[in-house]
Write a structure and sequence with these properties.
alpha/beta, 29% helix, binds zinc ion, 10 helices, 7-stranded mixed β-sheet, 15 strands, 25% strand
C-alpha cells in the first residue's frame, strides 16, 4: 500500500483555482471564491507586531491581569551554581542554547480585589533599553489607567521592577497610589550603609532605586512595611529574601483560591526549577536566595498554588510540580475567564 501523503500548499492552491474557474459566475459561490483567489495572488505585508501584552484570569473574586513590560536578554554566564556545560545542557533541553543570551520576560501584575486596584511591580521604564517600558501602555490596553491604581506593591527595588514607577520625565506615573516596599528593602537601598560596601558594578543600582521612589517619598506616598503587617484585605507579603535583602512576594487570597506573585524567585524557568541551586550573579545573598527558592517551590508544589513570576515566560502564571530531585514549571493555558471553576 502506498502511504497517504498530505496535500502540499501548491496542490491545494491548484485545486482552489480549478474550482474557481469551474464555478459559474452566476452562482453566489463564485463571488465568494473570486476574492479568495485574489487574496492568494496579492499577499499582504507581514504585520510583525505582537498581541497586546496582557493576560487575564480570575482567582476567586479577584481579577488578575498579567502585564508585559518587555524583555531583557541576559548573558548565560550570569547563571552559576552548576557546571557551565550543565547550564548549556539544561538550556538545550528547552531549545534555548543556540544564543549566548537568555531572553527573560519582565512581567508585572494588576490585581482588582473588588475594593482595591493593586499593581505588583512597575517594570523597567525605558532605562535599560527600548525592549522594555510597556507597562503603562498595557495597563491601558487592559482597560485601566495608571491613575486608577491605588497601591503599588514592589517585590524589590531593582530597576526592572521599580524604574517604571516614573514616567520618562521623572514624574510620578501612579499619582493616586501608595507605594509599599519591605522595610528591609527600603533600608538596604536607601539607608546609605550598603552602598559603601557594594561592589562597583552594583553601585548604580542604589542611585536608580533611590530615584525611582524619591518623588513618592517626597509626596508622603512611600510606605515601607514590616513582615506580618496587614497590607490590604486578602493580600499579605511573603518573605523571599536573598536576591535582595527585603525581596518579597505577595499572596492574594479569595474564596479558597490564591496566587503567589513571587517576583524574582526564579529568573530562568529552563534552569532553576530543575536546579534551584543555580543562582544569578547579582543575587545579594546567594545561600539565602537558594533557601528561599527551595522553600517557595516546595510550598507552591505542595499547596498547588497558582504562581506569577516577574521573569517567567509571559504571562508568567502557572503551577509548580515536583520532578525528580527538583521541580518543573506548568504554564497556564490561554483561555477565557471562567467563573465555573
Ligand atoms: Zn528582576
Amino acid at each position: 500500500m502506498s502511504p497517504i501523503t498530505p496535500p502540499t500548499f501548491a496542490t491545494l492552491r491548484k485545486a482552489l483555482l480549478a474550482l474557481a474557474v469551474a464555478a459559474p459566475a452566476s452562482l453566489a459561490a463564485g463571488a465568494v471564491l473570486a476574492p479568495a483567489v485574489a487574496a492568494l495572488a496579492e499577499v499582504p505585508g507581514q504585520q510583525r507586531t505582537q498581541a497586546p501584552g496582557f493576560y487575564r484570569m480570575a482567582i476567586g473574586d479577584f481579577e488578575i491581569t498579567a502585564l508585559f513590560d518587555g524583555f531583557i536578554d541576559r548573558d548565560r554566564k550570569y547563571f552559576v551554581g552548576v557546571k557551565s556545560e550543565d547550564i548549556i545542557g539544561l538550556l538545550d533541553r528547552m531549545f534555548l542554547a543556540e544564543r549566548p543570551e537568555i531572553q527573560a520576560a519582565v512581567n508585572a501584575y494588576l490585581v482588582h480585589t473588588g475594593t482595591n486596584l493593586v499593581l505588583v511591580d512597575a517594570g523597567a521604564a525605558k532605562s535599560p533599553g527600548p525592549t522594555l517600558g510597556f507597562i503603562a501602555d498595557n495597563i491601558r490596553a487592559a482597560g485601566y489607567s495608571p491613575e486608577q491604581i491605588d497601591t503599588v506593591l514592589v517585590t524589590h527595588l531593582h530597576p526592572d521592577h521599580a524604574n517604571g514607577l516614573l514616567r520618562l520625565d521623572g514624574s510620578i506615573l501612579f499619582p493616586n497610589a501608595e507605594v509599599r516596599v519591605a522595610k528591609a528593602e527600603f533600608d538596604f537601598w536607601l539607608g546609605g550603609g550598603a552602598v559603601a560596601k557594594a561592589p562597583a558594578p552594583l553601585k548604580p543600582f542604589f542611585a536608580m532605586a533611590r530615584a525611582a521612589v524619591a518623588p513618592y517619598e517626597a509626596a508622603g506616598k512611600l510606605k515601607p512595611y514590616q513582615p506580618g503587617d496587614g497590607l490590604l484585605p486578602g493580600v499579605e507579603s511573603v518573605a523571599a529574601y536573598g536576591h535582595t535583602p527585603g525581596h518579597s512576594g505577595y499572596l492574594f487570597r479569595s474564596k479558597e483560591q490564591s496566587i503567589l506573585l513571587w517576583g524574582d524567585t526564579v529568573h530562568s524557568h529552563a534552569l532553576q526549577f530543575a536546579h534551584p541551586e543555580v543562582v544569578i550573579e547579582f543575587d545579594v545573598d546567594k545561600d539565602e536566595t537558594i533557601a528561599s527558592r527551595r522553600r517557595l517551590l516546595a510550598e507552591a508544589a505542595a499547596l498547588k498554588l497558582w504562581v506569577g513570576g516577574a521573569h517567567l515566560p509571559f504571562p508568567g502564571i502557572g503551577h509548580v510540580r515536583t520532578e525528580g530531585d527538583g521541580y518543573a514549571w506548568v504554564p497556564v493555558e490561554f483561555g477565557p475567564i471562567r467563573s465555573d471553576r
